[in-house]
Design a protein that fits this description.
Elements (H helix, E strand, L loop, with lengths): L1 H26 L11 E2 L5 E3 L2 E5 L10 E6 L7 E8 L6 E8 L5 E5 L8 E9 L4 E2 L1 E6 L1
Parallel strand pairs: 1-10
Antiparallel strand pairs: 2-3, 3-4, 4-7, 5-6, 5-8, 6-7, 8-9, 8-10
């Protein structure tokens, strides 16, 4: 009888950990993300809605800092907020602040977390507080 009680309690605890993710997975809208709306960043300047963005490297490496430079004429703020999330895997949201330089450009450094996959795409938004553009960064080990 004690074995059955232990199994019931263990099953209930395990279900408590699994249920939220299962419910979230079932309730999410399964519309695929249109990667074409994102500007893939690299050493070649990517321009979207008049905002020019350049990444120090063609592909980011996990835990390796990479400089990002943005030219955004008439931006509404002295800082820009870059928010990125993994496309292939949920790794949370990484946020970075870019600061305005004396020449009018915005500079910041990003360092993406380690992922279990060898390659991953990070997609997100770059905002001046009023409007936003949609950058993407390819990360490879």
């Amino acid at each position: 009888m004690k074995i059955i009680q232990i199994l019931i309690v263990t099953s209930a605890v395990a279900l408590g950990f699994i249920a939220p993710d299962l419910i979230k997975s079932l309730s999410q809208d399964h519309n695929p993300i249109d990667i074409d709306k994102y500007c893939m960043l690299s050493t070649k300047t990517c321009i979207q809605d008049g905002v020019a963005v350049t990444l120090e490297h063609d592909n980011a490496k996990p835990l390796v800092e990479s400089k990002i430079e943005v030219h955004w004429d008439n931006a509404a703020s002295d800082t820009l907020l870059l928010s990125l999330q993994g496309l292939e895997m949920d790794m949370g949201i990484a946020k970075y602040q870019l600061t305005k330089q004396s020449d009018g450009s915005y500079i910041g450094n990003i360092m993406l977390p380690v992922c279990t996959q060898d390659k991953m795409t990070w997609i997100g938004t770059l905002s001046d507080g009023n409007s936003e553009v949609y950058p993407a960064i390819r990360m490879e080990r």
